[in-house]
Structure prediction request, 559 residues.
Amino acid sequence: MLRFSGFLFLYLISAISYAQLSQGGHGKSVSENTRSVGKILIITSPGDLGMQMANLLGTQLGLDVEVTDSDHYNPLVDEYYYDGFVYLGGKYNKPPKPGFIEDIRKTSKPVLWINYHAWLLGKDFFRDKGFGVLDVHYDQYTSLVSHVASKLSPTDTTLIKANGDKVLYWFFRPDKGLVPAAVHSGNFTYVGYSPTIDISRPDFAPFQSVLQSSFGKISRGMEHRVWGSYLQRIVDIRQDQFRTGIHLPVYASRTTNTVDGYDSDKWHANLMRIKNMGAEWVDFVTIYYQDYVDSSRIYADEKRTPTLDSLKNIISDAHKLGLRVRLYFIVNIAKPKNDEWRGFIWPKNKVHWWKSYRKIALTLAKFTEENEVESFVLGAELSKMQQDAHNWRMLVGLLRDKAQYHGLLGYQINFDAMQISWADKLDFVAIAAYWPLSEERNPDLRVLQKAWNGIEDIIKAWKRAHPKVIVEFGEIGYVSQPYSSVLPYSWKSDRGNSLNVNEQLQCYRALYGFLSSYRGIEGVHFFASTDEDDDTASKGYTPFGKPAQKVMEKIIHLR
Prediction:
């Protein structure tokens, strides 16, 4: 059995001039109908090349074309971002990932599928299309039949079952029988073999009808993608009066038995939820470690620190969705004793600690600039180390001058350690806003509202001391457990491990009331999207699928 090979592409360059020819009996040329429209993704089997196909579609058909192999297709995100798809199924033993199959099953955008694996879309998919594709192959056809019979080079073909109204052209068998070679229905076009693109061959002509059927009427309509250059986005962001976002915290660099890193396809669904919620921002974390609170060396943990490649991929995915990105540089304690956490860090050798911290911060700042990350939080909740104003001011200068970072720089303070004398060097200060709101479980909404009145006084006093500094709630959320209002900062506020979505709801309602009446907070970023988003019975921070979700959405659209 012959497999889909490079011969499909060897003739593409010579085919370019053919797009200037009319389609003989089918009206205008392909290029006239599709000029300057559409963003198309070509997906190839791993190892196959699609650049020649991209050249044909892009140069001559006016399509904006990108190429990836099927291993690097991003489910949900790529389906949202692109206007149409070409799948080159060139290797029988290398089928595409399930996420791609599911996207193609659901998409309403144009799809051109060539050669193998279409049968994976399922019988129900083809039942709706009015034809069938079977994992059955044959190599004894002699000709293609379009307007005239064209001699066919030997090729492996996939069996198609279809009525005549779905068929673009046919195979002609030695016994004079006709079998569908290419079919079209709705948004889906299928070619069951590897078409020749050499315009000197008569059997090239039918492939033109495939392109016409697939992309002849495609139009862009994705205006949200055109959102200006990186520097222009920064200018726009600085004028934003209320920045809203959702954290997507992932704590591993690669897939393990228990945790999926930022390089896992599973997080695309989270990104889509964040986008559909209406949030402008998504917040990612990159966590580094030091062994103890008094250690002087900070390092990347291979199992828990996201790789830059994995961050690059998810940043690109977020940008495809039109989301702005904030990246947090966080240092955690690898071997904490009792309740120790990063707020207790006080190294024995501060010179070595700062050298280590600056090196990582500079690397991340350069990375964020290269990947057009709109905001970088250069530290978070290092409550004791915040006192070292000289080194923090020097670090901000290095990030601007040496790393040439143009985006918004911020630092996150904890609600109980808001002293920061160098705030004037930052674009914003974020607060981890986990103030306790009550002393008992299931408090009345009025109790929570009264607590926010007292918190408002604290924030106003801080702003009087820093009148030119933008203040945001950089992180806020509540677990779905009893006592979540008592211990908002705890993943396990209820030692009994029980579910309580009502207390979470009341906390969100109180927050909405506070932000509605007090405009001194210029942004809010929810600690809300986790690996529990699909579980409405989860006891964690996610409000998705719970009553609090609607309140979070109201806050996001508040101003």
